[in-house]
Write a structure and sequence with these properties.
By secondary structure, this protein is α/β, with parallel strands linked by helices. The chain is 39% helix and 13% strand. It has helices spanning 51-63, 80-89, 105-116, 141-165, 178-182, 188-206, 223-229, 243-254, 281-289, 310-324, 330-335, 338-345, 367-378, 414-418, 438-452, 465-479, 496-504, 512-525, 532-540, 545-557, 569-588; strands spanning 2-6, 26-28, 42-46, 68-72, 94-98, 121-126, 171-177, 212-216, 234-235, 238-239, 260-266, 388-390, 400-403, 424-427, 458-463, 484-490, 598-602, 626-629. Mean pLDDT is 77; it is low at 4-22, 355-370, 504-509 and 627-649. This is Fatty acid synthase.
Length: 649
C-alpha cells in the first residue's frame, strides 16, 4: 500500500499577482498519533449511510471515542443493515440522521444547526458520491450537473456555512478520488468534481482553516466500486484497498496539515506476467456485463449480442492489453464470441484474426453459427392472442399474476414459473390493448385479472417493464376498493424505465426523431452485434418512423438465412413498433396515485455498468409506498428469467 502526501501552497502571496504554480512533491508519511474525537463536539458525515460512510462512522464511534454524530443521506435509512448499525451505535453515542439536501445553502444550514443544537461542531466529512460514467461523446451538461451537485456545490456550501457557524471546527474532510489525479475512462465529470473539492480544501488551509481532501484509489469490501465491480477491479493503476487498510491510514491523514493526500494500493503488473495470476477472461467479461453464470451462454454468441457498450469495451480492452498482450479495436471486441474468449484465456491465440464487420449484414462473415443464434432469438418474437395464460400446472384460487416484460409476452417467464409452488398466471399484451398509455393498458389488465379471480386479495408481480404496469394495476384495484395482498417487482419498478432509458441515451434531452432512432437501435441490439454509431447514422438518414422501421427490419432479417422458423416481416415490424411505443409510454409514466402496502423488489446483487448509476432501490423511495426490499440474483439481459439460477428467486 502507498500513502502519499501532496504538498501544495499553504499561504496566500502578499503581492496582488497570480499565485505561483508549485510542483506537487510526494513523500512517505508514517502515522505517529491516534486521532480521537471529543465527547462534547459533534461530527457530521455527509453520505454517511453509504458503504464507506457506515465504516467511517463505525470507526469513529467504536475506535475513536466519537459520542455525537450526524449522518446525512437524501434517502434516509432504507436497509436493515443501516438500521442495525444505528441501533448498535445509539447504545453508546448520540446519533442523528438528517435528510437535508447538501447541495443547497438552506440544506447545509439545517444540517449544521441540527448538529450545533447539541454541541459545538468539531468535524465535517463529505463522502457524497454520484456516478454518471460515460465516454465523452455520451456525456452532457446534465451528467456533469448530477455528479458535481453533491461534490462541488455540497463542499462549497459546507465551506461557507462552517466558516460562519463552526468556530471550533477541527476537521473539514472531503473524500476525493485517484481518478482526479490520474484519470479513468468514462469519468471526466467525476474527476472534475473531485478536483474542484480539492481546490476548496487548499483555499481553506491557505486561510488558516482545517481542510483535507483524500484521494482514494479503488476501495474494496464496500461502496459503489465494490458493488459494481468487486474486489478485483483495477482503476487508475490501483487495485482495491481493503476497508481495514483505509481506516488505518485515517489517523495519519487527520494528524497532518497538508490539504491534499492520497492512499492507494498500486497494481503490480509484474505479478500478472505469471499465468496463475491472470484473471479468467470469460469470467471477467461476464462480470463486466453483469452475467452471473457464463457457463450457460451459447459459445457462438458475441459480446455485442450480449449488450456490451462502449464503456464496457474500454474496460475489457484494458484487461486484454494488460493480461494477454492483445490489442483489439472496439469493433473487434464487440465481435468476440464466448468460445473465442475461452481460447484467449487458455492461451490459444496463434493466428488470431477478427472477421471484418459489416453493419448492413452482421451475420454474413460470422458463418452459419451466428445466423442460427440470431434465428433462435427471432423465433421468440410472437404476437400474443390471449391476455391471460397459465404458466404452470399448479392450482389455486388466488394465483400470482405476472405482467409481461417489454416484449409483450411472458415466454421468458415460463422456466421461472415452473419453479414456483403456487399457481402462476401470465398477463400478456394483445393487439386490442393500447400501447400508448400505461394507465389505459393497466385498466384492461384489471378487467382480465378479475375474470380469473373475481375478488381479492390479489397477488401481483411484474418483470422489468411489467413492474410499472403491475404497480398501476395495483393502484387502480385499490382505488376501486379491492384488496392487494402482495406486489413484487422482478428487476423493475414504477420509474425504472424512465431512469434506465435516460441513462442509456446519455441522460440528455433529445428530439422525437433521435428518440425513435435510439429505441430502434436498442431493439436491434437485442438480437444483433452492431456498430451502434454506424447503424444510428444509417437509420437517421430516413425522416419518418415508418421508413426507419423498414430499414431496421432489413438489417435484422438479413442477419439470418431463409427458414421456416424465421418470423415474417409483419411480425418483426409489429414487434419493433410495440417496443418503441412501450418505451415511450414507460418513459412518460408518472404515478399519480398512492399505493398502500409493502412491495418486494428482487434485483441484481451486482448491477452491470450500464445501470450502475441507478439508485439502490430503482427509485422506489420516491414512490409513495412502504418498501420491504430483498436482493435476488437476477441478470439484467433479455434472458434473465432463464437459467439454472432461477430457482434462487
Amino acid at each position: 500500500m502507498t500513502c502519499t502526501i501532496r504538498r501544495s501552497v499553504t499561504k496566500r502571496p502578499s503581492l496582488p499577482r497570480p499565485r505561483p504554480r508549485h510542483r506537487p512533491r510526494l513523500s512517505h508519511w508514517k502515522s505517529q498519533h491516534v486521532r480521537t474525537f471529543t465527547h462534547t463536539s459533534r461530527t457530521s458525515i455527509v453520505g454517511g449511510l453509504g458503504g464507506f460512510g457506515l465504516e467511517l462512522a463505525e470507526w469513529m464511534v467504536t475506535s475513536r471515542g466519537c459520542r455525537k454524530l450526524v449522518l446525512t443521506s437524501r434517502t434516509g435509512v432504507r436497509t436493515g443493515y443501516q438500521r442495525l448499525c444505528l441501533q448498535r451505535w445509539r447504545r453508546v453515542a448520540d446519533v442523528l440522521v438528517s435528510t437535508a439536501e447538501v447541495s443547497t445553502e438552506e440544506g447545509v444550514r439545517r444540517i449544521v444547526e441540527e448538529a450545533a443544537a447539541m454541541g459545538p461542531v468539531g468535524g465535517i466529512f463529505n463522502l457524497a458520491v454520484v456516478l454518471q460514467d460515460a465516454l465523452i461523446e455520451n456525456q452532457s451538461a446534465q451528467t456533469y450537473e448530477a455528479v458535481c451537485s453533491a461534490k462541488i456545490l455540497g463542499t462549497q456550501r459546507l465551506d461557507e456555512v462552517s466558516r460562519a457557524l463552526c468556530p471550533e471546527l477541527d476537521h473539514f474532510v472531503v473524500f476525493s478520488s485517484l481518478v482526479c489525479g490520474r484519470g479513468n475512462a468514462g469519468q471526466t465529470n467525476y474527476g472534475y468534481a473531485n478536483s474542484a473539492m480539492e481546490r476548496v480544501c487548499e483555499r481553506r488551509v491557505a486561510d488558516g482553516l482545517p481542510g483535507l481532501a483524500i484521494q482514494w484509489g479503488a476501495i474494496g469490501d464496500v461502496g459503489v466500486v465494490h458493488d459494481v465491480m468487486g474486489n478485483d477491479v483495477v482503476i487508475g493503476g490501483s487495485v482495491a484497498q481493503r476497508i481495514t487498510s483505509c481506516m488505518e491510514v485515517m489517523d495519519c491523514f487527520l494528524s497532518q496539515k497538508h490539504p491534499v493526500v492520497s492512499s492507494f494500493v498500486k497494481d503490480d503488473p509484474s505479478s500478472r506476467s505469471d499465468p496463475k495470476n491472470k484473471q479468467d477472461l470469460l469470467l471477467s467479461a461476464a462480470h463486466i456485463l453483469g452475467i452471473k453464470d457464463p457457463s450457460s451462454l451459447n459459445p457462438n454468441i458475441s459480446l455485442g449480442e450480449l449488450g456490451i457498450d462502449s464503456l464496457m469495451s474500454v474496460e475489457l480492452r484494458q484487461l486484454l492489453e494488460r493480461d494477454y498482450d492483445l490489442t483489439l479495436s472496439m469493433q473487434e471486441i464487440r465481435q468476440l464470441t464466448v468460445s473465442r474468449l475461452r481460447d484467449i484465456s487458455e492461451g490459444r491465440t496463434e493466428g488470431f484474426t477478427m472477421p471484418p464487420g459489416d453493419v448492413t449484414d452482421p451475420g454474413r462473415d460470422k458463418g452459419n453459427a451466428v445466423s442460427v443464434v440470431v434465428l433462435q432469438k427471432l423465433s421468440a418474437i410472437v404476437i400474443p392472442d390471449r391476455v391471460i395464460v397459465e404458466l404452470n400446472g399448479e392450482e389455486g384460487q388466488t394465483p400470482l399474476f405476472i405482467v409481461h416484460p417489454i416484449e409483450g409476452h411472458v415466454g421468458s417467464l415460463s422456466e421461472l414459473a415452473a419453479c414456483l409452488r403456487l399457481r402462476a398466471v401470465g398477463v400478456q399484451w394483445t393487439p386490442d390493448v393500447t400501447t400508448h398509455s400505461i394507465e389505459k393498458m393497466a385498466a384492461v389488465y384489471v378487467q382480465r385479472v378479475r375474470e380469473v379471480q373475481p375478488e381479492g386479495p390479489y397477488h401481483l408481480a411484474g418483470y422489468s417493464f411489467g413492474g410499472m404496469v403491475a404497480f398501476e394495476v395495483a393502484v387502480q384495484m385499490q382505488a376501486s376498493g379491492e384488496s392487494v395482498g402482495s406486489l413484487t417487482f422482478l428487476d423493475g419498478a414504477p420509474g425504472f424505465m424512465d431512469r434506465y432509458t435516460a441513462q442509456r441515451r446519455g441522460r440528455s434531452e433529445i428530439g422525437r426523431e433521435e428518440h425513435e432512432t435510439d429505441l430502434l437501435v436498442r431493439f436491434l441490439c437485442l438480437y444483433l452485434d452492431l456498430d451502434v454509431f454506424q447503424i444510428k447514422h444509417q437509420l437517421s438518414e430516413h425522416s419518418t418512423f415508418e421508413d426507419k422501421r423498414e430499414a431496421a427490419i432489413d438489417v435484422l432479417l438479413s442477419a439470418c438465412s431463409q427458414d421456416e422458423a424465421r418470423p415474417s416481416r409483419y411480425v418483426v415490424g409489429a414487434a419493433m413498433r410495440r417496443f418503441y411505443e412501450f418505451g415511450r409510454a414507460g418513459s412518460l409514466y408518472r404515478p399519480q396515485s398512492k399505493y398502500s402496502g409493502d412491495v418486494l423488489l428482487l434485483k441484481p446483487s451486482r448491477l452491470p455498468k450500464t445501470a450502475a448509476d441507478l439508485t439502490y432501490d430503482y427509485g422506489l423511495s420516491e414512490v409513495p409506498v412502504a418498501v420491504n426490499e430483498s436482493v435476488g440474483y437476477v441478470r439484467t439481459n433479455r434472458d434473465c428469467m432463464q437459467g439454472s439460477w432461477r430457482a434462487e428467486i
